[in-house]
Amino acid sequence: MYILIGIVVLVVLYGIMIYNGLVRSRQMAEEAWSGIDVQLKRRADLIPNLIETVKGYAAHEKGTLEEVVKLRNQAQAVPAGDVAARAQAEGLLSQALGKLFALAEAYPDLKANQNFSELQASLETIESEIQMSRRYYNGAARDLNVKVESFPSNLVAGQFGFSKREYFEIANEADRAVPAVKF
């Protein structure tokens, strides 16, 4: 009788350990997504300053400037949990930013503008931090996904509604490249 009770207690304790590991992994993935979101917000906040600086030099390049603003707004409008849609929107924004920086080649005064240079350097830093945040999120998502799919934790995950996370991936190969900024 005591052996049977001992086995039941061990199984329950093991189930609790698995459950707590799943909760920990889910929280790590949510915290990692929050890190990406913060960096994307920093980039989105920097874009209006960059646009205003470029506007003074490239007034006739209105289409490119409007595209960057439109794509920034679209990226910010994506629902918080929709990782795939956010990745796609951010990829398009990165492409538009690349076009914006290509405009600087046609305007030597803009390239020499200290404000533009500082904004460009800030954007490069943020792009690097976004890349690091993406890697961290994808690692946290991978760890959660392994636990959700592995036996015996998949039994606990199924019982308590744990699900796999999408990776923050960019589908289009051209979108994967960080905008090239050459002066």
TrEMBL record:
Compartment list: Membrane
Gene3D superfamilies: LemA-like domain (1.20.1440.20)
Membrane topology term: Single-pass membrane protein
Stated name of the protein: LemA family protein
Key word Membrane present: yes
Chief site of localization: membrane
This protein's record includes keyword Transmembrane: yes
Transmembrane domains' residue ranges: 6-23
Organism lineage string: Bacteria, Pseudomonadati, Pseudomonadota, Alphaproteobacteria, Hyphomicrobiales
Keywords: Membrane, Transmembrane, Transmembrane helix
